Amino acid sequence: MSHYVVGDVQGCFDELQLLCKKIKFNPNKDKLLFAGDYVNRGPKSLEVLDFCLKNKKSIEGVLGNHDFYLLYLIEYKKKK
Fold first, then answer.
1. pTM for this predicted structure
2. Is residue 68 scored above 80 in pLDDT?
């Protein structure tokens, strides 16, 4: 079982997939630890979040400022 720490994915899903391929990430035995900023600058933030949810047993992490801002926007929109 390997553990990998990844920071600032920033919505770059294609690059995340390339990284997972390069390290031969196996969600059945490895762990990915995200150090914040899953979303924002890249074009595929939703795909990054979907990837995390689909592999939730093998992924852990903390939220970054861009992730907190997304949560803020979601809550703000609920109140309108």
1. 0.90
2. yes
